[in-house]
Amino acid sequence: MKEHIQQLLEQTVATLIAQGELPADLAPRIQVDNTKDKAHGDLASNLAMLLAKTVGKNPRQLAQQLIDALPASTRVAKVEIAGPGFINFYLDSQWLARQIDGLLTDPQLGVKSANPPQTIVVDYSAPNVAKEMAVHHIRSTVIGDAVTRTLEFLGHKVIRANHVGDWGTQFGMLIAYLEKMENEHASDMELSDLEAFYREAKKCYDEDEGFAERARGYVVKLQGGDAYCRTMWKKLVDLTMAQNQIIYDRLNVSLSAKDVMGESLYNDMLPGIVADLQAKGMAVESEGAQVVFLDEFKGKDGEAMAVIVQKKDGGFLYTTTDIACAKYRVETLGADRVLYFIDSRQHQHLMQAWTIARKAGYVPEQVSLEHEAFGMMLGKDGKPFKTRSGGTVKLSELLDEAEQRARDLMASRESDLSAEEQAGVVHAVAMAAVKYADLSKNRTTDYIFDWDNMLAFEGNTAPYLQYAYTRIQSIFRRAGADAITGPVQLNEAAEEALAQKLMQFNDAIQNVAAKGMPHLLCTYLYELSGLFMSFYEACPINKEGVEAAQKASRLTLCAATSRVIQQGLALLGIQVLERM
Length: 580
Prior knowledge:
Strand content: 5-15%
Number of helices: 20
């Protein structure tokens, strides 16, 4: 609806320019917002105040001039001036009612598909090989997945890219230790063993010079394509990713084995990229290394920052890999847009790699490279989330604790569910609570992880939204054979407020897609659920004395709300429940 009002105002400005009432070079950025107080209409624009000084007119006078020139719209009941010059729009209730009627027959629930659709690469999760996923991996994983689902819902071609850390000098050490373990008949390892495996490999490397020499030799052989080393390396990768897939499936994250695009994928490109940067005069020798000097980044001395792309021993750096990665995503995958869900501390590193990639001509200006940075998960003490002993929290252990806490919580509530149904509810509530605790926070900031808040049935939590959905299902069960929906009538303020919120679903989805911020959808769903609860209290549905047409109208509002909550949570990767 905001888009429609913006279009009306754009037409109005164009008309007044054509009539000579406004300057010909005027090109304002027109903003339309939802009002906080319905006494001031449903939507408002500050356009008159924005333009008043430029055109030399009183804001209220200009607002009236804009209103007088507005094209007629069946969607708008009236337009008024408020305060110093706000233009307030009141939506037509009958038009609004018809939109809700149409919502139930629209597979997109009023959300406009992308036109034209793009090819979008989303880089997220990115665990490391031979290490179990830690709790800090959850942010990239669940935020990236929610945005990916949203982009696909809009019709974009989305390529999931799980940039796994599967390359580097440490693999010589790991291959040597894997060989040692297999020679000692201990080849059947689980990932939990790999935590100790990594530590023991490092210990051997530090304490046994013969082992270390063999490990260094395996690094060279692996990078040279040696078949034996490649086979051992692949065992480590496959073992790690098989265990990570269990986590993804448990969290209802849509990543799979086919989405793995490890650092090794770009290894063969690196010598060619350095040679090309040299040929273009971008990479120059400095103290034996190949370096690109970037004027866009200054060192402490104010000089152009030196970015190493090849070490003096011939080895390559993460920067070189990320240049190759950007090149591959544009040239091979055909990306129009690439979203990187990576820790905010990596920002300068990414900017340097992308600056080089663009200067080298690997990434055209029209291709958008976006660092969708995120902050840290903190404990209640405001420090990075750790175990009580100060160690790293394994993601699997966090999910185990979530299920146990959800199980204890459900046991304290009365329920007529079977044991099997209760187990399903516990799993759905636990996974939803963990994911939503992260997704509901602005990704750019750090956030405090709090078990009590995330599992609460009040406030902006997953259990609250899941409960709102189950309440609607219970309304339909109580209505039984009489659960007939019908044309919407908006006679009560609570009905109209709920209908208007339902019409804002499109705005919420478009904002998530444009900004890579799932918390905007979480906020919308929380506000929608709150308005539904107010509607439910104010507008009886199954009580005696409610007229048939009114009951059918309210059931339609219930059905529309139910579908929007279900779809919204699905885009967040969260399961709804028919009963709790």
